[in-house]
Amino acid sequence: MRTKETEPAPRVQSVDRAMRILFAVAQSKDGLKAAEVVAATGLPRQASYHLLHTLVATGILTRSGPGKYVLGLRVGTLIEGFKRQLAPPEHLAPVVRRIAEETGETAYASGWWDGEIVTLVTARGTNSVQAAEVSHGTYFDAHARASGKLLLAYSTEQLRTDYLSSHRLNARTKNTITTLARLYEDFERIRQQGYATDLEEFSNGLCCLAVGIGGGAQPFALTVSAPTERFEQRFDSYLSMMKRIAGELS
Predict the structure, then answer these.
(1) How far is CA 156 from CA 61, 160, 192, in A?
(2) Which residue, 196, 190, 85, is CA-closest to 145?
(3) How many whole angstroms separate alpha carbon 183 and alpha carbon 13?
(4) Each residue of 58-99: pLDDT tens digit?
């Protein structure tokens, strides 16, 4: 028997359906035609058409090219609001800038936020050739990121299980770990050595090193990211510097 505690919160069907359409369009490469929206969401054709027209009227979607629906300009307001409201602890930004300055590489900090592993602060380095920056608010494919693997390795068993049971282990590159068995082996190695690496697992030609700060079951992860050749040449110095900074913050 359901109680007030176990009964699911009421949901407005039209809003739920509109969000499914919005996510389907957002996750597509270059927009979706109406029939593709129906196929992607599994929603009734007539309901999908009505909702598409409503989303266009509100500016959340717009028509583009050969009958395709793409994200509208008003989505930009949502994106900017999300980034503005995703406020990291004040002590993280100076630390990330320091890592970028000392290494010359792209640096960022990540943490748990609403059940996801999210990039909270980023800073570009000074080297002429830089790794592609991980945007503020990035949360997908944590299993392929050094920061994500580190935070999962040190999380509680329940949090780790909940996350991995609700996220696919997508193969971003040929080096991406895509099985739970191998991922758990990596978690054990991370806990033993005290740091995590991403060796072209998230992006070809790019490697990352992450260390934890903050302690407890949900620390923050500090990451330095560099082109593969430079990462391999300077790994020892990166690791020494990252451990030193993490130690100063403990």
Answers:
(1) 39, 6, 16
(2) 196
(3) 37
(4) 999 999 877 899 999 998 888 777 777 766 777 888 999 999
The reported pTM is 0.73
**145-165 as b/e: b if 16+ CB within 10 A:** bbbbbbbbbbbeeebbeebbe
Place of tokens 């068995």: 181
Which tokens is 14 given? 């039209």
Contact assessment for residue 88 and residue 109, using Cβ atoms and an 8 Å cutoff? yes
Distance separating alpha carbons of residues 160 and 185, to the nearest angstrom: 14
Which contiguous run of DSSP H or E holds residue 13? helix 13-27
What domains can be seen in the chain, in order of their start residue? Answer: 13-75 (1.10.10.10), 88-249 (3.30.450.40)
- Give the closest residue to 85 by CA, choosing from 59, 124, 55, 114: 114
Amino acid at 132: A
Asked if 120 and 96 count as a contact pair (C-beta separation under 8 A), the reply is no
Q: How far is CA 186 from the centre of its chain?
A: 19
Coil, strand, or helix at residue 139?
coil
